[in-house]
Design brief:
This protein is an alpha/beta fold and 306 residues long. The protein has 2 domains: 212 residues, Spore Coat Polysaccharide Biosynthesis Protein SpsA, Chain A (Alpha-Beta Complex); 88 residues, no CATH class. Helix content is 44%, strand content 18%. The strands form 2 sheets. It has an 8-stranded mixed β-sheet with strand order 3-2-1-4-9-6-10-8, sandwiched between helices. It has a 3-stranded mixed β-sheet with strand order 5-11-7. Helix 7 crosses helix 9.
Length: 306
C-alpha cells in the first residue's frame, strides 16, 4: 500500500489545527492510500502536544508529532523533510494549520497526476467570505483560465508531490528566507521545476481558510507586497545566477511600475486602488530589495504579517 505523509507546521493555532485535522479525517480515501499526519510544532513550549495527543487516541489516521524550537516556518518545514527519511512515503503533502481540505481533495489530486504525469500538484486556497471586510488576501492568489494549468511553482498551503523527486536531492527550504516568513516555498518548488519536475495547478484541488482579522487592513497588504518585492530579487538570483538575477529583478521592477501607472487611471474603482497600491509596493520592494535584503529583519512580526 502506498503511503502519503501530510505535513502540517503549526504555531499557536490549536483551534484551527483541530479543525484542520478533523477535515482530513473526512477525506474520501477510496484509493486506499495509507495516510500519516506529521505535525511539526514550532513553539518553544510545544503548545499543540496535549491537544494532538488527545485527538490521536481516536483519530482515523496515524499522527506523528515533532517539535522544532527554532522559530520560523523554514526550520519547521525542514524538520518535516528530515522526518520523511524515516517515514519513507510515496507521496508528501504540505498544508497550513489554519485550513480545511475538501472531501475529494485527495481523489482529485491523484486524477491530475494520472492524467498529466505530474510530479507536483497544487490548487487554490478558497477563503470564506466576510461581507463586512475586504479580503486583501485574494489580491495575491493566482488565477488561471483553464481547469488544469502547467505552472512554475507551488505554495505549501496546498501542495502534493511524489517523494522520489526530493528523496536523493540535497534540497531544503532556504534558511535565508526564514526572516520573511514566506517565499521559501516558491524557491523550493521553482528549483524542482527547473530540474524538470512537472507542476500542475487544478481548480478542484481546494483547501479552505477563514480570513484572519489582521489581514483585513490595507497595511497588511502594503507589508506583504513590499516583502514579496524585496525577497523576489533573492529568488531570481538563486534561480538564474547573480548577474542574470539582477537583470530579471529590475525588468520585473519596471513591469510593476508600468502596472502601477496603468491602474492609476482607473483609481476611482475600489479594487483598482488596491491593485495600484499592491503593484507600487511590489515595484518599490524590487527597487530597493538588492540594497536592503541583508539588513532587513521581519521575523519579529512575521506571524502577524503572514
Amino acid at each position: 500500500m502506498k503511503t502519503l505523509v501530510i505535513c502540517i507546521c503549526t504555531y499557536n493555532r490549536n483551534k484551527s489545527l483541530k479543525e484542520c485535522l478533523y477535515s482530513l479525517e473526512k477525506l474520501n480515501n477510496s484509493v486506499k492510500i495509507k495516510i500519516i499526519i506529521l505535525i511539526i510544532d514550532n513553539t518553544s513550549g510545544y503548545q499543540s502536544f496535549n491537544l494532538v495527543k488527545k485527538i490521536k487516541k481516536k483519530y482515523k489516521y496515524k499522527i506523528v508529532q515533532v517539535n522544532e524550537k527554532r522559530r520560523g516556518v523554514v526550520y519547521a518545514r525542514n524538520k518535516a523533510l528530515n522526518k520523511l527519511k524515516y517515514l519513507k512515503p510515496c507521496f508528501v503533502s504540505f498544508i497550513d494549520d489554519d485550513c480545511k481540505v475538501g472531501k475529494f481533495w485527495l481523489v482529485n489530486i491523484l486524477k491530475v497526476i494520472a492524467k498529466n504525469k505530474a510530479d507536483i500538484v497544487t490548487g487554490p486556497q478558497i477563503y470564506f467570505e466576510d461581507k463586512k471586510n475586504i479580503n486583501y488576501t485574494k489580491f495575491f492568489e493566482k488565477k488561471y483560465k483553464l481547469n488544469t494549468t502547467n505552472v512554475k511553482w507551488a505554495a505549501t498551503n496546498n501542495v502534493f508531490f511524489k517523494y522520489n523527486i526530493i528523496k536523493n536531492k540535497r534540497l531544503i527550504f532556504d534558511k535565508f528566507l526564514n526572516k520573511f516568513g514566506m517565499g521559501e516555498d516558491q524557491l523550493f518548488f521553482s528549483l524542482l521545476n527547473q530540474k524538470g519536475c512537472k507542476i500542475f495547478w487544478n481548480k478542484n484541488i481546494q483547501v479552505y481558510e477563514k480570513i484572519h482579522k489582521h489581514r483585513n487592513n490595507i497595511y497588511w497588504l502594503i507589508s506583504r507586497s513590499f516583502r514579496l518585492g524585496v525577497l523576489g530579487n533573492y529568488i531570481d538570483r538563486k534561480m538564474h545566477g547573480i548577474f542574470l538575477g539582477y537583470i530579471i529583478n529590475y525588468l520585473k521592477c519596471i513591469l510593476y511600475f508600468f502596472y502601477t501607472i496603468k491602474t492609476i487611471f482607473t483609481i476611482y474603482d475600489k479594487n483598482s486602488r488596491i491593485f495600484t497600491i499592491n503593484f507600487f509596493f511590489r515595484f518599490f520592494g524590487k527597487l530597493v530589495g538588492p540594497i536592503i535584503f541583508n539588513k532587513i529583519e521581519f521575523l519579529k512580526n512575521v506571524n502577524k504579517q503572514k
